[in-house]
Amino acid sequence: MTDSVDDLAAENRALRERMAWMLEQAERNHDIMMRHQAFDLEIVGAGSFPELIGSIFSTLPVISELDSVTLSLVDEGDDIRTVMERLGVDFAAYPDLLFVAGTSQLGLDSEPKPLLGAYDAQRDGLRFPRAEPPLQSVAIVPLLRNRRVIGTLNLGSADPTRFTPSLGTDFVEHMASIIAICLENVISNEMLKYIGLTDSLTGVYNRRYLDRRLLEEIARARRQSYDLSFMYIDIDHFKRINDTLGHQGGDQVLREVASRIKGELRLSDALARFGGEEFVVLLIDADLDSAAFVAERIRAGIATAMIDLEGGVKVSITGSIGVACLSGAEGGGDVAADVAARELISHADEALYQAKAGGRNRVIRYATH
Ligand SMILES: Nc1nc2c(ncn2[C@@H]2O[C@H](COP(=O)(O)OP(=O)(O)OP(=O)(O)O)[C@@H](O)[C@H]2O)c(=O)[nH]1
């Protein structure tokens, strides 16, 4: 009798313990689900590429209790990288964001399915360039959009039992599908942004971008008391080039001139095509003397070497440049930033007019009377 009571009590205890464990698991799963739901909302709401990537790298390892999370993205022709860099993304800040030139370099099977199992230094080393502590198991999950593989989400754990080949993949696949949608969305948004801010013929910025940037830079230059300079560059007798070489020849000249101007600038300077054969340059932290010095280099760069056009034709051209400066010492006076911007542009334009009137192929500085 006592035995059976004892047995019952033991069984009861065991059942209670099991129940407590199950409750704990259920609570833990609920917790994980809630954290993932919050993560889904966070990434769906990301407004830009850096914001999305930042969320993935900072939040996902924490909520999933992973030791390493990296992304490999397919970037044929370096388009994504080029555009993001032009939009100011600093890739050095995202060492876990990796690019490959084609899907074949993702290391997936021909049927793109998640690969789960033990960490293999030879196979996975490149996917987890900075894994610390050393990884023991990994999940390589394809990022798919309309059956196209756009990359992989790489999850690494120091726990050898975390990812095993027999583990179900629904959860990681769901996570990867949301990440893939978000990635595609932000990348196309950033591409559209880029197209809206650049000149399709030459690839340099357009007027819309420069007008906006100029306002931001004026505000910053005032806060930090440095000089801003502005350059108006106009190709001389461009109409003749079009007349003799045709519009296509003229377009080639515009592209070459844009590239020669760019070659003389610092990364912080902004070059834009204002339309037609007019280019402008905004130079950050440059007084009138240094801007005129750069302008002189640009003038020489345009005039010195002949331009090779398709079909073996060579053409020699020159450009006229007007330079003006907004002094940091004055802080642009009391006028509003948009008024200061218009003044700066019109001063450079006035100097350009003088350069044209004075015989072209020259640099003229705007002089305050
Ligand atoms: N090929 C090409 N030509 C363009 C483009 N936009 C404007 N143009 C041409 O640029 C020329 C500008 O000529 P003008 O403004 O008269 O000046 P210019 O001949 O350069 O003479 P100056 O500026 O006085 O030295 C016109 O023939 C326009 O048709 C373009 O996108 N491509």
From TrEMBL:
Membrane-spanning ranges: none
Catalytic activity: 2 GTP = 3',3'-c-di-GMP + 2 diphosphate
The GGDEF domain, residue ranges: 226-368
EC identifiers of the protein: 2.7.7.65
MF term (GO), any: diguanylate cyclase activity
Pfam families xref list: DUF484, GGDEF
Matches recorded under CDD domains: GGDEF
Entries under InterPro entries matching the protein: Diguanylate_Cyclase, DUF484, GAF-like_dom_sf, GGDEF_dom, Nucleotide_cyclase, Rev_trsase/Diguanyl_cyclase
Protein name: diguanylate cyclase
Organism from which the protein derives: Pseudoduganella umbonata
Taxonomic classification: Bacteria, Pseudomonadati, Pseudomonadota, Betaproteobacteria, Burkholderiales
